[in-house]
Amino acid sequence: MSPDINSLTSRRPGWRTALVGAVLIIGIPLVIQACNQASAREEEGRRIIQLRHPSDDVSGQEVAVLTHAPNVPPPITRTHPTKVIVNLEVIEKTLRLADSVQYAAWTFGGEVPGSFIRVREGDLVELHLKNDASSTMPHNIDLHAVTGPGGGAKASLTLPGHESVFTFSAMNPGLFMYHCAMSPVPMHIANGMYGLILVEPKGGLPSVDKEFYVMQSEFYTKGKYGEHGVQTLDMEKGIDERPTYVVFNGGVGAITGDGALKAKVGDRVRMFVGNAGPNLTSSFHVIGQIFENVYGEGGSTNAEHNVQTTLIPAGGSAVVEFGATVPGDFVLVDHAIFRAFNKGTLGILTISGPENKKIIAEVQSGLTGTPAK
């Protein structure tokens, strides 16, 4: 049986002294290193808490300008945080999903997607959620920009014909999704209850010429794609993740034709892109454009550059920026390409202005040119 350490050290005082000395020689630097690391972590924790702490210098108040997609409220020019009153109404109504196809939707602000909300980092947001008296269900709102249980869902539970009010500090800059979180949550989201809230950083965003609001989402209808009439949710399709439609801004062709996004050659373009899901990941792409800046996951600081296609998870967002350099119709797609051409995820950005043949030029048409040898 091996002797224990106490018996060894008691019989060999010199060995005990050497052992203690070794521990001191080796251990003190390790202890110092560990203390320094702990101190650094503590300091970083303090820094993060300070960054996220509600602002104490809120002054004045204003009523938020809300817009329907694809429009975006104007940039915030004030340089101080203020109290922002957001008035949002839940309305259950039948909306166009495709030609001759309607959907019994639940909405924030009467449209799908819901109204775009724009505030500034440090603002105190007072959100008034009204549930129209004609609603058949109680509703609430979960904003991913809110720090707190449920993102405000518990505080905003609202019965038909009633109104709830709660406040939150917009502490983290970025582009965030909001949605209804009443049970069953998937039903409320699938029926159209989602939108985006932008929390601008204190220094604002770089100036651009055009800003657009684009939201991808899925509809799981009892009828087949294109089947006429008023459609309602098929829960089994939703559970199985088999959407009938995958669309931009609430319907097939919502941003085509008269609804196409418009810009001019020379414009800087910014798109606030959300993915409401409720199930699929979006592979967002604009055919014929390269995203010069992509703020992935809706973050406000770290950008990737020269991106062709960006992934946007369900419940997530991205901000993409690029220059309009040549004219034409540029097609927005979810590059999971069957969705684009067979389920509706197509949009158009029309850029007008003079051609630039240094960037792109047709040298010979394959339709009318010389036959290949």
Give the CA-CA distance, first to last residue: 93 Å
The amount of helix comes to 10-25%
Q: On the 0-100 scale, what is the average pLDDT?
A: 89
Low-confidence stretches: 1-32, 44-51
Main β-sheet: number of strands, strand sense, barrel status?
6 strands, mixed
The proportion of residues in beta strands is: 35-45%
- The total count of helices amounts to 5
The 3D shape can be described as globular
Radius of gyration over C-alpha positions, nearest whole angstrom: 28 Å
Order of helices and strands: HHEEEEEEEEHEEEHEEEEEEEEEHE
Structural class: alpha/beta
Task: Count all strands and give the number.
Answer: 21
SSE map:
Layout: H1 5-11, H2 13-52, E1 61-63, E2 83-98, E3 101-108, E4 117-120, E5 124-131, E6 142-143, E7 163-169, E8 174-179, H3 185-190, E9 194-200, E10 210-219, E11 229-231, H4 235-239, E12 245-248, E13 261-264, E14 268-277, E15 282-286, E16 291-295, E17 304-307, E18 309-312, E19 316-323, E20 328-334, H5 337-342, E21 346-352
Parallel strand pairs: 1-2, 2-5, 3-11, 4-9, 10-14, 13-21
Antiparallel strand pairs: 2-3, 5-7, 6-8, 8-9, 10-12, 14-19, 15-18, 15-20, 16-17, 16-19, 20-21
Helix pairs in contact: 1-2
